[in-house]
Automatic annotation (TrEMBL):
This is Uncharacterized protein. Residues 43-73 are annotated as: Disordered. Residues 49-62 have a biased composition (Basic and acidic residues). The chain crosses the membrane at residues 6-27. It comes from Actinomadura graeca. It comes from the Bacteria. Keywords: Membrane, Transmembrane, Transmembrane helix.
Length: 73
């Protein structure tokens, strides 16, 4: 019967290790989320400027026929 307290103690120790690892993962995910938000705020104006430049580009020209251009060797 002495194996019951040992098994319970090992189970509790295992749950403690899992809880500690889960907490570290939680903190890492939170930190990563903050980093993504900060990057999004920094790139937002540049993204908007690039999008505006794309709207200002002229329309693409019509495709040329294969006979136009440099022949391949």
């Amino acid at each position: 019967m002495s194996w019951v307290p040992v098994a319970v103690s090992l189970g509790f120790a295992g749950l403690t290790v899992l809880a500690c690892c889960s907490f570290k993962v939680f903190l890492g995910v939170r930190r990563f989320g903050r980093e993504l938000e900060r990057t999004k705020r920094r790139l937002g104006p540049k993204h908007a400027a690039l999008r505006d430049e794309l709207h200002d580009l002229p329309e693409p020209r019509a495709a040329r026929s294969p006979g136009d251009g440099v022949p391949s060797v």
